[in-house]
Specification:
By secondary structure, the protein is of the alpha/beta class. The chain is built from 15 helices and 23 strands. It has two domains: 272 residues, Aldehyde Dehydrogenase, Chain A, domain 1; 180 residues, Aldehyde Dehydrogenase, Chain A, domain 2 (3-Layer(aba) Sandwich), CATH 3.40.309. The chain is globular and about 70 Å long.
């Protein structure tokens, strides 16, 4: 059993409190003890970051490149080990865990390159003899609040750009997955980054979260999590005039048209809806299928979902791992009952499975209406629905009939419909003949409506959040 300490001001500490890190595939397997920070420890980390950032803001592009590249190199070299830890504590299948670890390494490598590509602009003024230049400068201390479902990738895609652009970072990761956050912090601590520029402070969100959000030395907050918590974070940041970035929920549609390749459509829907145990904000939890292909799609989808192998995340035969914990499993099963009560037909799954972990058979519902709770509220588990639509126009209207707008997909062989869908669906990311979940690390990530607030994450667009623009005028 391992200890997972916090990293505060460059020093590792278990503090005075700790909590067990339990394997959701086998609750008898206690992976380790994770430090639980106090409000005072969060304050210490922020103060240390504030001091350390002053020098880091003056670092050269080469220094930043070297640090970020070293982090990325070690992550990629250890992706199997890190992926195994991730799958053990979070529950996604081992190939997914290794893939996520690799993605974290690629993200750091990408921002290593961005550190050498920092650009400004120079223009002539409208006034004779005056020069104008614009440059991006760091914000200062950035507080990062990350969820449990991508325990190394999301901390990576927030931390890497923050460091790249000269900020200091205080990371508050989810308590359910302390091992991955600790492993990332351990790698960062040996990368050559000055002490205090990065701190890991795990603890109860209710106790240390407000300290981070309200602290006068924290310039910005980047948050990924629930809509309810996101609203509270936004309100608190507004009061304190902090820059804020929110990535929240989704109820993502996958439209399947009559002309779709059935095999492609079923593959995309099974992947998007149920891989990672459906615990992705980009999961395609609503499949909107036009009437000409509906019966064939339902039959093929039911067969494919029923055949999915549920089991221990690190078993080579497992396709769907456990739900993260007992509370989430109870929520998922509750939504199964809600859907039944609303009149939906349970085509397959939806049962708690035997074993020492939080296992559930993937649930697929048919005969649903878009106004049902099961189609309007985010479940965040292996539960998906199928809605029948008369034609493309109705399918598009149903796809847009939600408070969310993160990701949307369409399966079709028609260039006309694919082009129209990309232009008219209300989502920040659109997939054609691909799962709604699964995105590249070098391009923007984010949504519309209730799914996102603030600047986009990832890729070159990350600079919009992690920097501020200064405009200078010079009389020649």
């Amino acid at each position: 059993m391992t200890n997972f300490p916090n990293l505060i001001g460059g020093e590792w500490t278990m503090g005075t409190q700790s909590v067990p890190n339990v394997n959701p595939s086998d609750t008898a397997d206690v992976i380790g003890q994770a430090a639980r920070a106090t409000a005072d420890e969060m304050d210490q980390a922020i103060n240390a970051a504030h001091e350390a950032q002053k020098d880091w803001a003056k670092s050269t592009p080469q220094q930043r490149f070297d640090v970020l590249d070293a982090i990325g190199t070690e992550i990629l070299a250890r992706k199997e080990e890190l992926g195994d830890l991730l799958s053990r504590e979070e529950g996604k299948s081992l190939p997914e865990g290794i893939g996520e670890a690799a993605r974290a390494g690629q993200i750091f490598k990408f921002f290593a390159g961005e550190a050498l590509r920092l650009a400004g602009e120079r223009l002539d003024s409208v006034r004779p003899g005056v020069e104008v230049d614009m440059r991006r400068e760091p914000l200062g201390v950035v507080g990062l609040i990350t969820p449990w479902n991508f325990p190394i990738a999301i901390p990576a895609w927030k931390t890497a750009p923050a460091i790249c652009y000269g900020n200091a970072v205080v990371l508050k990761a989810a308590e359910a997955v302390p091992g991955s956050a600790w492993a990332l912090a351990d790698i960062i601590s040996r990368s050559g980054l000055p002490k205090g520029v990065f701190s890991l402070v795990n603890g109860r969100g209710s106790e240390i979260g407000p300290v981070m959000i309200d602290h006068p030395k924290v310039a910005a907050i980047s948050f990924t999590g629930s809509v309810q918590t996101g609203r509270s974070v936004a309100q608190a940041c507004a009061v304190n005039f902090k820059k804020v970035q929110l990535e929240m929920g989704g109820k993502n549609p996958m439209v399947v048209l009559d002309d779709a390749d059935l095999e492609v459509a079923v593959g995309a829907c099974v992947n998007g809806a149920f891989f990672s145990t459906g615990q992705r904000c980009t999961a395609s939890s609503r499949m909107i299928v036009t009437e000409g292909i509906y019966d064939d799609f339902v039959a093929a989808m039911t067969k494919a979902v029923s055949a999915l192998k549920v089991g221990d995340a690190r078993d080579a035969s497992t396709q769907i791992g456990p739900v993260i914990d007992e509370r989430q499993l109870e929520k998922d099963l509750e939504y199964v009952e809600i859907a039944k009560a609303e009149g939906a037909t349970l085509a397959c799954g939806g049962e708690r499975l035997d074993g020492n972990g939080y296992f559930m058979s993937p649930a697929l519902f048919t005969d649903t209406r878009n106004d049902m709770r099961i189609n309007q509220e985010e479940v965040f588990g292996p539960v998906a629905t199928i809605i029948k639509a008369k034609d493309y126009d109705e399918a598009l209207a149903l796809a847009n009939d939600t408070e969310f707008g993160l990701s949307a997909g369409i399966c079709t062989t028609s260039l006309k419909y694919a082009t129209h869908f990309k232009a008219n669906v209300k989502a920040g990311m659109v997939m054609v003949n691909l799962p709604t979940a699964g995105v590249d690390y070098h391009v923007p990530f984010g949504g519309t409506k209730g799914s996102s607030y603030g600047s986009r994450e990832q890729g070159r667009y990350a600079a919009e959040f992690y920097t501020t623009v200064k405009t200078s005028y010079t009389q020649a």
